[in-house]
Amino acid sequence: MRQTAFITGATSGIGKATAKIFAKNNIRLILCGRRAERLVVLKEELSVLTEVTTLRFDVRDKDQVQQQIANLPENFKQIDILINNAGNAHGLSSIQEGSLEDWDAMMDINVKGLLYVSKAIIPQMTKRNTGFIVNIGSIAGKEVYPNGNVYCASKHAVNALNKAMRIDLNKHNIRVSGIHPGAVETEFSDVRFKGDTEKAKSVYTGYKALQADDIADIIYFVISRPYHVNIEDLVVYPTAQASATILNKH
Ligand code: NDP
Ligand code: 8X3
Fold first, then answer.
1. Which of 12, 29, 117 should be mutated for ligand 1, with most atoms under 8 A from CB?
2. Does this model's pTM top 0.90?
3. What is the pLDDT of residues 87-110, one digit of tens each?
4. Protein residue whose Cα sits closest to atom 6 of ligand 1
5. Domain boundaries, given as residue ranges, for the chain
6. Which protein residues touch ligand 1 with a CB less than 6 Å away?
7. Which CATH code is given to the segment(s) 4-236?
8. Residue 82 CB-half CA count within 13 A
9. Which residues, including other chains, have CB under 8 Å from residue 127's CB and lie 6 or more apart?
């Protein structure tokens, strides 16, 4: 039977690449993001492979999140796989210099947004005693690096919530996996450095960074194991990276 996946942050990077590999594997898709024009293009592209619907909302808006998920078309209502991927870093400043707006954005999107989406979807999984939740964390959720402070805190929270979900949902037969990438070449650094493309580009120069497809392949591998297999936690680095701050650049 065709499964249905709900992917947040599907308009770019890891989420978009995951949508593509899921479509190729005949998974019905609910694709989410704020950029409507990108959702339209993606739906058109992937509809030749599978059924696709799109939802446009900001994960920070809990009413929108609840309302849009409650009003999904009938054939998309039963969600088998939730990919909690939407998120970003905003700024890279010391704790004494960081901006409150950036801090709000990271905690509201990466932590509270993930909770709002999960809260809207988990009840139908617990009711059916089946489901799969993949939380996209980061190595920033495993270690703390200079000026990473609040982004690292937000991803440490994702790491904790990933574990918490696995514990609380265990009795409901729901699989929960955390994927924690190192440097992936996406729009991530454009957002972090607020459109300073030179600075963003420099994050990925001098070595081969992970590509969005590398993480999407891993997500597909994780969700396609037999049901009794739950991959708990995966940390994925580019070969050139040994920690958040150790990069073998040439
Ligand atoms: P991108 O910037 O390429 O994609 C981020 C996605 O999140 C976009 O689709 C964006 O969609 C969505 N998004 C951001 N804010 C909101 C919001 N307020 N409401 C709804 N959707 C939102 O980055 P990545 O693909 O790299 O990031 C995906 C995840 O991977 C993030 O959680 C990130 O923290 C994590 N990650 C990234 C790493 C990297 O090096 N790139 C490494 C480790 C983890 P839209 O703007 O259309 O709303
Ligand atoms: C993205 C990777 O090292 O910039 O989460 O935090 S890092």
1. 12
2. yes
3. 999 999 999 999 999 999 999 999
4. 9
5. 4-236
6. 8-15, 33-35, 58-60, 85-88, 109, 113, 136, 138, 181, 183-184, 186-188, 191, 212
7. 3.40.50.720
8. 27
9. none
